[in-house]
Sequence to fold (266 residues):
Amino acid sequence: MKNNTGYIKNIIKVLVWPIIFIMGQFLIQYIFVAIFNYNEKNNMSTSKFIDYMSTAEYQNKLTEYINSRALIIIAITMVILLPIFYTVYKKYKTKSNFKFKNLIVPILFGISISLIYNIVLFSLNNVVGFTNEFQASSLPLYVQIITSGILGPILEELTFRGVVYNKLKEFNKPMTAIILCSVIFGILHVDIINAIYAFGVSFILIYLYEKYKTIIAPIIMHISLNVTIMLAYSLIVRNILIVNISLIIVSVIILLILKKIIKKDV
Fold:
């Protein structure tokens, strides 16, 4: 019983970090929502403003306001949260064997997995009711790439592979730590399809982290995953069969090449 209690306490201590990750982003965005509400309220009565908040006009204006400040929001988020997670991760850093030539491995993983997953999901859209997160975004492409494509993955990898996974390893067997980290990472992706995807991808991200002994490797793969679908989305959503089949074939070829590269990679 005592051992179980100690284990639960350790799990709770680990869960503090993804909670900080989520709440930190939520609070920063909430500040901007509060500023927007303050400016919109003007001379309205409280009851009238509450009614106004349920209108499409309010929602559209709020979305436009937040989107136009997306870069500022992510910059503030990084300035506040990045030093916190990096400080914790530093104590787990070891000598890395990651070299410039090794960049090809996480990049190829990201490109191939992202293309295969998203093409299959788009093809089965009517069956699973899947909506890609980038499809729903009204942000300009360059803003998506900077926020969700580059800065987001850096913070996520420091949080989950850098902190959560390393802390789980302190009181779990390696495979248990991998599974728990992947479950936590998957749950935070909300809908079931993306949660399963994130759960599976987490195994590869952890593999790269352990292989090269640096958080840079999973960061590169995560960036590659996100940016690939952003750039390929316009081709995929047109449902041009020959384009989608070609992308699948290219992705499979990449994975085959990747298998050989990994065997030679030191």
